[in-house]
Write a structure and sequence with these properties.
α7 packs parallel to α8 and α9 runs parallel beside α11. Helices cover 42% and strands 16% of the residues. α9 links the parallel β7 and β8. The chain is globular and about 45 Å long. The two termini are 13 Å apart. It has an 8-stranded parallel barrel with strand order 1-2-3-4-5-6-7-8, surrounded by 6 helices. The chain is of the alpha/beta class and 234 residues long. The chain has one domain: TIM Barrel, CATH 3.20.20.70.
Amino acid sequence: MQGPLMIALDVPNEEEMNAILDQFELNDDLTVKIGMELFYGNGPAIVKNIKNRGYKVFLDLKLFDIPNTVKRAMKQIAKLKVDYVTVHALGGSKMIRSAKEGLSEVAYPTKLLAVTELTSLSEKEVKEEQNCNLSMSEQVVHLGQLAKSAGADGVITSVHEVKVLRNQLGDDFLYVTPGIRNQNDAVGDQTRVSTPKVAYKSGSSALVVGRPITQSKNPRNSYLKMLKEWNNER
């Protein structure tokens, strides 16, 4: 059994969120990702709503600020008892370490995930806009090493870098991969995308899937179909 296939609820309000979640059953072992739009528009109560359904919560706010500010923010997030939360690895080791310290204020096993490079970015953009002389793979490994040494529990990375990350950082670390699509789905605003089957073979720990599930005619059926592929079931 693989790790969770997280459903990204990239919708603007609670009504649209409920319309999607109401199509699932309470015994579905869901992990739901709340992004910036939903959280900023509806506040912390949105987390309570999802947890009351019995689902796990991935709060994806990608914090990126000076260490003390991030630590204080994480102290507040820790009170929400979410299961996963994100920072940007580019914020540096001190910031990541401070984020972990902030989460430790509450005795709840929230996993801290560090975003390496966004799956919307191409290698050309990383080189030209970030002035990075490393290849995409080398840059992601560098950021993964930095995140792990600073106490993060895992990274957010595209499927394309998972194998080399796992080889370099080991199996005691989480490799969470967004940009997951069915074979014939539109790419949208993502650049480095892949399928659940490829993610399984590459060694991903968990997947993040948004529009292929939430914008389908039957979100639960789409979720179960992708979950079956993710778990390598025939």
